[in-house]
Give the backbone structure.
Amino acid sequence: MLEIGRRSLLLGGSAAMALTTLSGRMARAGTPVRGGHLRVGLGDGSTQDTVDPTAVLTDAQYIIQASCRSTLVNVEPDGSLTPNLAVRWEPSDDLKQWSFEIRQGVTFHSGKPLTVEDVIASINVHRGPDSVSPVKAYVDPITDIVADGPDRITISLSAANVDFPGIFAQSRLPIVPARDGSADRATHDGTGPYVLESFEPGVRMTFTRYEDHWDKENVGFFDSAEVIIIADDAARMNALRTGQVDLINQPDLRTLELLKRDSNLVIDDNPSGRYYIFGMMSDVDPFTDRNIRLALKYAINRDEMVRKVLHGYGRIGNDQPVDPSNRFFNPNLEQREFDPDKARYYLNQAGLDSITVPLSVAEMAFAGAVTAGSLFAASAAQAGITLDVTREPDDGYFENVWLKKPFTADYWTRQPTLDAHFTQAFSQESPWNETHFRNDRFTELLVSARATLDEAARGAMYQEMQQLIHDESGAIIPMFANYVWVSTSRLRHGPVVVSNDLDGLRCIARWWFED
């Protein structure tokens, strides 16, 4: 049985290469051509942005990693894992060791050859008790990494993990050069298809194609590119209409119909696993009381939010993070509806007739978060709950508010595997566990699922974990949002990854202009 499972796990060999071919990187609209200068109007960036891979928070930081650096593994539009800097990988029989063969002939932009030492240092920078990296929870199970020759590393784990290679598809785990045995976190150097020429945090960044990139057939079609941070929705849409940029993300959904009238523009609407969340820290009063958490979960009108915040470009959520397109989605959870009587019931169970709760929101948290906060306050008032909504500054929101204040707005994108998402967002060891969710049964299931090859058995565990998050955590997840972007009609791309906006923020790396 293990051998059958292992055959499906040996991604990186011939089967994975076939997946790369079949995934459709070649265009739905023709063959990619080289040339041109891409201008992107990006809605998410901060003056506190850096190139440090251990501090990636905003879309601006993601697009740097996706354009200028490379991961060991790629995630394809169909969700499969395919080779990038790792040519192939395979597990030991007990799934506690994984061996990765590192691609040869790759150079950094500086001309330095890629080595296994660079790979090991790039992983180790996220490890250790002092690490504040958002992916620390992914790499904490690593007990050792050793070089097995010039082109291979072996990673030992404290416990089995069938999905372990998936963490290396994360753009937060890029490979950077090692300096004196440690990863150079401040360098602009990378092995990606583009060189970062200039970087003004929160303002602008420019890129030029790296002509010596090893994968010229699939990436690096633009001669150059620039990203302009335009936080205001109206200004971003106007920049596209007036020809100042070629592509924008996060358009104002309220006025999107106006852009549909322009034949020179194309709107992409992509359902995804991205969800918007109001997260309560369950170890901070009053959220320590499960009754208070349930009262708030019944005090939100999800249908209204999809209509008035997403304007139909999404679907309702159910206070757990797995969307219906995922094969491990739990269809048996009762959909939580807006019910002020039930919210008041749980409030009474907590011994209260009314309560005032602070909530922090910002448009940086997600597009429409301020409106969502107001809608939440209005619906909660019908149950005797006063939400004291504070609109926080957009700049620095994720650095200064999120994970600092006890009830905040946020968004999450789809991760390469459910294990990766549950680990980062809900495991008690994760620094990004915004709800401070701690549940012994959840932890037990998380560890057990990693060692379970049988998909049906693993699926049953994941479904129970969704139930626990739904019932016990401080996560209010009212909606899943589509990725919507608008571009000039001459911009082309193949099938897109919906793990993040703009093709996983790989628009510079993978898209092109028609000839």
User: Anything to note?
Assistant: Residues 275-481 form a domain with the Dipeptide-binding Protein; domain 3 fold (CATH 3.10.105.10). The longest strand covers residues 194-200. Residues 455-472 form the longest helix (18 residues). The radius of gyration is 23 Å.
